[in-house]
Specification:
There is one protein chain. The chain is mainly alpha-helical. The protein folds into two domains: 86 residues, Winged helix-like DNA-binding domain superfamily/Winged helix DNA-binding domain (Arc Repressor Mutant, subunit A, Orthogonal Bundle), CATH 1.10.10.10; 144 residues, Arc Repressor Mutant, subunit A, CATH 1.10.10.10. It contains nine helices and eight strands. The protein has a three-stranded antiparallel beta sheet with strand order 1-3-2. A three-stranded antiparallel beta sheet has the order 4-6-5. Strand 2 and strand 3 form a beta hairpin. The chain is globular. The termini are far apart. The relative contact order is 0.10.
Amino acid sequence: MSEMEETQLPPITSLSAAERRVLGTLIEKALTVPESYPLTLKALTTGCNQKSARHPVTNYQEADVEETIGHLRELGLAAVVHTESGRTERFRHYLRRRFSTLSEPQVGILAELLLRGRQPIGELRGRASRLAPPGSLDSLEQLRAELAGLAALKLVQSDAPFERRGAEIDHNLYEPHESRQMTMQADTDDETPPGRPATTAVPGATLRPAASPAGLPPELAGRVAALEKECAELREENRDLREQLDEVGKSLESLRRALGA
C-alpha cells in the first residue's frame, strides 16, 4: 500500500461486529500461531467461530468472512496474500499500518478487547498478556500506561479512571446504533470523597456519579458496590479458567490421538 493510497483511506471511528471479530482473530493468530499466518479463509472462519476466548460465540460462514475481509481491505486494515502456487489466498491484518504509533502490547490489548469486549482491568491484563511480548504486561501499572496511549487514540473507553481498582475497559469501535458508550462512574473510597464524582476523564466516556443502593450510608454503599464488582470479576475469572481447562483437554486429546496413530 503506497503512502498516497493510505492518505486516501477513510478514518476509522467504528467497525461492525463482524469486522471486529475478523480483525481481532487475524491479530490473535498472527501473535499466537505465526507459523500458520497469514490465514486461509477456512482457518480464519474457524478462528472467528471458536468457543474459547470469544464473546459472543459466532457461527459465521466462509462467505460472511470473505465479505467482511473485503470491507476491512477497503479500510486498509487487511490484505490478501497469494501463495507461491497462486491457488490459495491468505489474509493478514494491517492494524499497525493504519495506527502506526501502536506499541506491540497495545496491539495485543486491542485484539483481546475486539474478541471479548468489556472486561475488568485485572482480567484484561491476564488475558492480553498472552498476546503481548513477555514481561510487557506483567503489572497493572504497565497495562495502565498502554491503555493511556490507546485512550489518546480514542480506541478504548472505561467506566472509571484506569488507576481505580475494578475499572472496566472496552474498545471504542462500536457502531453508534449499538449504544455501547460507557459512562464514567465514581466509587466512594479513600481517594474520592463520598458523593463527589471522579474527575479523571477517559476519551469516549461521560462522567456521572455512581448510584448507591437505597437506604445505605455512602461509605457502606461504596463497600457493597466494590464487593459486587469483585464477585462479578471472580465469576468471570472462573469462566475463563474453565475455558482454558477445556482447551488443555482438547490439546491432550489431540496428542493422545497423534501418539496412538
